[in-house]
From TrEMBL, chain A:
Residues 6-76 form the MIP18 family-like domain. This is Phenylacetate-CoA oxygenase subunit PaaJ. Residues 120-160 form the PaaD zinc beta ribbon domain. PANTHER family: 1,2-PHENYLACETYL-COA EPOXIDASE, SUBUNIT D-RELATED, FE-S PROTEIN MATURATION AUXILIARY FACTOR YITW. Transmembrane segments: none annotated. It holds the Pfam family FeS_assembly_P.
TrEMBL record, chain B:
It holds the Pfam family PaaA_PaaC. It comes from Aromatoleum diolicum. This is Phenylacetate-CoA oxygenase subunit PaaC. InterPro entries: Aromatic_CoA_ox/epox, Ferritin-like, Ferritin-like_SF, PaaA_PaaC, PaaC. PANTHER family: 1,2-PHENYLACETYL-COA EPOXIDASE, SUBUNIT C, PHENYLACETIC ACID DEGRADATION PROTEIN PAA. It comes from the Bacteria. NCBIfam families: PA_CoA_Oxy3 (TIGR02158).
Length: 162, 255
């Protein structure tokens, strides 16, 4: 048997399968943990509708809690409220930057958008230069865009705000 | 939830939205490994994933509303052409990159408006799916809108291709706004907007971009397509035969 706070502690060590430097709790996708029928019930919310990591995440959560002695673990996927990058913790944003991924800024395309190839100047996570260009709105996953730094010439990914 | 919730009209409405996402997601995924540049190859594959994820949520919901025990896989893989309710625009062949981008722009702009309206749906599950999908659709519309301008206001060749794409696709957009008797029931139950309600807002979104892309918007003609009524173009059958190949060859296969 685990207590709620012990369960949260366990989840803090479950990495996101695609960005292993941050945990599922830092990503903000674990919404609730409650004791239920002598086991644990965990509510997670998907990042993107088609995110292929969703099922892996549910399995990792189940495995980690069972290994820690939680007994029966159920994982529920809940859509509302929809996940937002605002739920990524500040520490996790710093970890993303150190890992080479520019963390999300506050420029989600809400409302009318200027439709032009002039994306916001992002700071390169490696050298800090803002002389960067967007190469593609979508990078290796739907949640990231691909950029290149004109100063250090390194490509980098940007975790898009959503 | 009121009594209207499980009406056939309600199921039909959700199925249509789900089929649009599924069929365009499948169509767009054909670019995987074939796009002009690697970055766009990945972008198209990622957008396909978004659409297929949305389709999965919507068809799972339609199956629950129907209450006959059909899940999203059964709806996707065991229905035949005549039972699909997607807009004809979604099933048309990709042809070239210009047509793919013009289609994505016309469709994603429509989706942005539809999801915005569905945020307040009386069907709470549909509203939750809308809140999630809206965030994705905005990126799709932005991506395709950028490309429409870049291609339309680009070289002689890219302009000609973008214009040909618009000329080909534009007549199929009339179907977006065709209202059916089912819509009245759905609108009355506050499940979602009647399609015709979206037309003016859609034009306000797409026309300025098409103008900026230096493209000429074709005049409306009496032509109408009827995919949402189950009367499809010749292309859907071919698409389904590939998408459903595994289930047709090994019925009931699971993994």
């Amino acid at each position: 048997m685990l207590t709620q706070s012990q369960a949260w502690k366990v989840l803090e060590a479950v990495p996101d399968p695609e960005i292993p430097v941050i945990s599922v709790t830092e990503l903000g996708i674990v919404r609730e943990v409650e004791l239920r029928n002598g086991g644990l019930h965990v509510v997670v919310t998907p990042t993107y509708s088609g995110c292929p990591a969703t099922e892996v995440i549910a399995q990792s959560i189940r495995d980690a809690l069972v290994d820690a002695g939680a007994g029966a673990v159920t994982v529920e996927t809940r859509l509302a409220p929809a996940w937002t990058t605002d739920w990524i913790t500040d520490t996790a944003k710093e970890k993303l930057r150190a890992y080479g991924i520019a963390p999300p800024g506050g420029d989600a395309p809400v409302g009318p958008q200027p439709v032009r190839f002039v994306p916001r100047k992002l700071a390169c996570p490696r050298c800090g230069s803002t002389d960067t260009v967007r190469l593609s709105q979508f990078g290796s996953t739907a949640c990231k865009a691909l950029y290149r730094c004109q100063s250090c010439l390194e490509p980098f990914e940007y975790f898009k705000p959503i | 939830m009121n009594q209207q919730m499980n009406s056939p009209e309600h199921i039909e409405y959700v199925t249509r939205i789900g089929d649009n996402a599924l069929i365009l997601g499948q169509r767009m995924s054909e670019w995987c490994g074939h796009a002009p540049v690697l970055e766009e190859d990945m972008a198209l594959a990622n957008m396909s994933l978004d659409l297929i994820g949305q389709a999965r949520m919507l068809l799972a919901h339609a199956g629950k509303l129907e209450g006959k025990g059909r899940d999203e896989d059964q709806l996707a893989f065991l229905r035949t052409e005549l039972n699909y309710r997607n807009l004809t625009l979604c099933e048309l062949p990709n042809q070239d990159f210009a047509r793919t981008m013009v289609r994505n722009f016309l469709f994603a702009s429509f989706q942005v408006l539809l999801w915005e309206r569905l945020l307040t749906s009386s069907d709470s599950e549909l509203a939750a799916i809308a809140a999630k999908s809206l965030k994705e659709a905005r990126y799709h519309a932005q991506h395709a809108g950028d490309w429409v301008i870049r291609l339309g206001d680009g070289t002689v060749e890219s302009h000609a291709r973008a214009q040909a794409a618009l000329d080909y696709l534009w007549p199929y957009t009339a179907e977006f706004f065709v209202t059916t008797p089912a819509d009245d029931a759905v609108a009355a139950a506050a499940i979602g907007p009647a399609w015709s309600e979206l037309e003016a807002a859609w034009e306000a979104l797409v026309l300025p971009v098409l103008v900026e892309a230096t493209l000429t918007v074709p005049a409306r003609t009496p032509f109408k397509s009827f995919g949402k009524f189950g009367r499809h173009s010749e292309h859907l059958g071919h698409l389904l035969s590939e998408m459903q190949y595994l289930q047709r060859t090994y019925p009931g296969a699971q993994w």
